[in-house]
Amino acid sequence: MFKKILIANRGEIACRVIKTARRMGIKTVAVYSDADAQALHVRMADEAVHIGPAPSNQSYIVIENILDAIHQTGADAVHPGYGFLSENAAFAQTLGKAGVAFIGPPVGAIEAMGDKITSKRIASQAGVSTVPGHMDLIENADEAVKIASSIGYPVMIKASAGGGGKGMRIAWNDAQAREGFQSSRNEAKASFGDDRIFIEKFVDQPRHIEIQVLGDQHGTTLYLGERECSIQRRNQKVIEEAPSPFLDVATRHAMGEQAVALAKAVGYFSAGTVEFIVDGERNFYFLEMNTRLQVEHPVTELITGIDLVEQMIRIAAGETLSSRQDDVKLNGWAIESRLYAEDPYRNFLPSIGRLSRYRPPVEGKKADGTIVRNDTGVFEGGEISMYYDPMIAKLCSWAPGEGTSARIKAIDAMASALDDFEVEGIGHNLPFLSAVMGQERFRSGELTTAYIAEEFPEGFAGVTPDMHAARKIVAIAALINQRIQERNAEISGTIGNHRRMVGKDWLVTLSGAGHEVSIKVDADEACVTFADDVRISISSGWLPGHSHASFQIGCETMGVKVNLIGSSIRLRWRGIDATATVRSPRIGAFARLMPTKLPPDTSRMVLCPMPGTVTSIAVKQGDMVEAGQALATVEAMKMENTLRADRRRIVKRVAATVGQNLAVDGLIMEFE
Question: Which of the following is catalytic: 111, 226, 288, 301?
C-alpha cells in the first residue's frame, strides 16, 4: 500500500480524499496556489507545497509544478480528484515515467474516453447506444453553423475535452450556433487548455442518468447503480440522487451492462462514470464517459456502502475487488445538493467574498434513521475566490427503505438540513435548493434537464409564502419580538416600584400585509392569536443574538434563520426570505402614512452582474445597438457571460475597459 499520497487538487474534493487516506493510515500532501494558502485542504494535509499564482493555468494544471511537489515530498502516488489534471493523459503518463502511481484509470482509457469524439466511436463499436451528431472536429464558426443546420436544431455544442458544464452551449438557430461555437471554444481553452469542439443532436426533454462503474486491474468490472442528475443549470448539475426515480430494474440492468461493456472495451480500471441521456420512453443514449471520480459520488457511496476513494486507492495499488456484481445492493435513497457561491436571484451568477458565517448542519445519523453528510472545503472566515469553481459544499441526505417513501424521506431530511445550514457574507443558492425540495414536481420525480428553465422561466425570485406559511412566519416574528421586548424591559429595570410592561397586542407587517395579533406567553410556550381568532401555539429556545433556531409549531419543527435588521426581523425558511416588522398598533397606524423609498433607476445602465473580468467590449460610444445585440463579455470562475442590449438604444458612454476587474453592479456602459 502507498505511504504518501499527493492530492493534485483543491477544495472539497481534496479534503474528501484526505479523510479516506487518513482513515487508511496513509500520509497526504496538499498543493496550493497563492489564493489557497489558508485553504482547508492545506490545513488538513500532513504536508503542503506551494505551486504557483492563483490562476489554475499557472498552478493546478501545470504538470511541472505538481512534479516538483512530488519530488519535494517523496509522495509515491497522486490522486487527481476531478477537474484540473484528473483526465489529462499526459499527466498520468508523466507520473508513470517518474515511478509515481496515478490513482485513476490507465492512460489509454483516459485518451480514448477523455476525448468525446473518440469515445462515441468506441461506444458505438462496443454496442452502446449513442446520440446522432458530427464526431469530427470543427474548425470555425461557419463550419459549425453548416453542421448544426444539417443535423437539425436544436444542437449541443460541446468541448471535446470538456466536463462540468464548461464549454457547452445549446443552439436553436444559426446565430446561436455561431456565437455558441466561439463561447464554447473560449471556455474550453481557458478551462482545459484544449479548444476542440464538436456538435451533436440535443435531445429535447431529456433526463440525465449516469452509471457508476468500478474496475480493478485483474479483469473485474462492476456497475454500482445509477445517479439521476437532471436538475441542472447552464449544463452543470445542481441536485443529484441515487437511485433514479425513473428507471425500472430492466433499464438499470441494460444501462449497467452497456457501461461495463464500454469500460472493458478500453481496458478500464478505477472508478469511472458513463453518462446517458434518457428520453421519456426510457430509451437511453451514451453521452460521455468521465474517467475520474464524479462530484456526485457521495450518493452512490451512501446507497452502496462502498467508499469509492478507498477503492480507487486500493485498485491503483494493485489489489483486487472483493465484490462481484451480485454483491452490489442498492440500499435506501440518497440526495445531494450542491451548495454554490452563486446568487440565484441574479440568474445563478458567481459570487465572491468572505464567509462571515459558515455553520453546516450536524452530520451523522438522526433519530429517524436518516443520515446527513456534508463534503466541504471551506470554513468560516475563509474566502471564496474568483479563480475557481464556485462550489462551497455538497450536502447529502440518506433515508432507509425503498421506492417513493424512501425518496420522500430523503428529500425531507435534505430540506431540514438546508434549513439548518447557515451561510453569510456571499451570495449562495441555499434558498433555491430549499425551494426545489418543496416543489411538487420534484417530489413526484418528474424531472428533465430543462427543469430549472421550465419551473423558473423568469429566474428565481424566492418562494412566496401561502397563507398557512405566512401565519407561521408572523407567529415566529411575534414570539421573537416578545423575547426582545422582555429582554429590553429587564435591562431597563424598574422605575420606582414599577417594571416596564411589555404589550401583548402587535401589528406584524409581512410582504406589505398587516397582521393584527395578540401574544400570550406561558412558560416556554406562547399562543399567538390572529384577528380572525386563528390561534397558533409556538415554542422555541431562541434568544436575542441567535442567528438560527428551531421553532415548534404543533407537530412541525421549523429550522429558521433569524437576522435582526434595525426594527425588522428577517426570517428565512424553505426558500422563503421574508422581512417582518413588528409594531404596536399605535405606531403601526403612523407607519402606514410613511412614503415608500424607491430604488435608484438603473434602466439606462449596463451593470456587471457578478464579480469578474471584462474580456471584451463589442460597442463604442455613439453606436446604435439593437435588442439582443452583444455588448460586452465578463468572465469569472471559468464561466463566460455575454451581456446583451434589452432594446434599441444609443451608447452614451463606455465606462469599463477590457481586462478590468469589476465588482457586482460595477458600471460597464450607459445609454442615452
Answer: 288
